[in-house]
Amino acid sequence: MSSFFWVVAKQVKSHPALIPLFIFISGGATMSVLALTRAALKNPDVSWDHKNNPEPWNQMQPNQQYKLLAVNMDYSKLKKDRPDF
Q1: In-domain check, residue 38
Q2: Average pLDDT over residues 38-58
Q3: pLDDT of residue 24
Q4: CA distance linking residue 13 with residue 81, whole number of Å
Q5: Is there a domain that residue 47 lies in?
Q6: pTM reported for the whole predicted model
């Protein structure tokens, strides 16, 4: 694995125009891993513990925000509109 980094460093030294390419590719890969991790841990549609919490979407409060971006939505003003299970 360390030899791979030496090869990349050698190519970057000989071709400095590749530096932005490596920056944007590594930044995009990092952001995609972070987005996947956030979706896997915060989204109520994903259930990791089927024995203790088989339906995590029923534990969500009506004013709890789970989306990454909420445009024109104030979750603190929402009222309960569903029955208790």
Answers
A1: yes
A2: 75
A3: 96
A4: 61
A5: no
A6: 0.56
Tell me the chain's radius of gyration from C-alpha atoms. 22
The average pLDDT across 16-29 equals 91
Assess if residue 18 is contained within a domain. yes
User: Does residue 4 sit in the same domain as residue 37?
Assistant: yes
User: How many structural domains are present in the chain?
Assistant: 2
60 domain-assigned:
yes
Residue 39 near residue 31 (C-beta atoms within 8 A)? no
The closest alpha carbon to 69, from 47, 40, 39, 46, belongs to: 39
Same structural domain, 38 and 69 = no
DSSP symbol at 45? T
Are 9 and 31 spatial neighbours (Cβ–Cβ below 8 Å)?
no
Q: Give SS3 for 80.
A: coil
Which residue segment(s) compose the domain that 68 sits in? 54-84
Mean pLDDT in residue range 31-47: 85
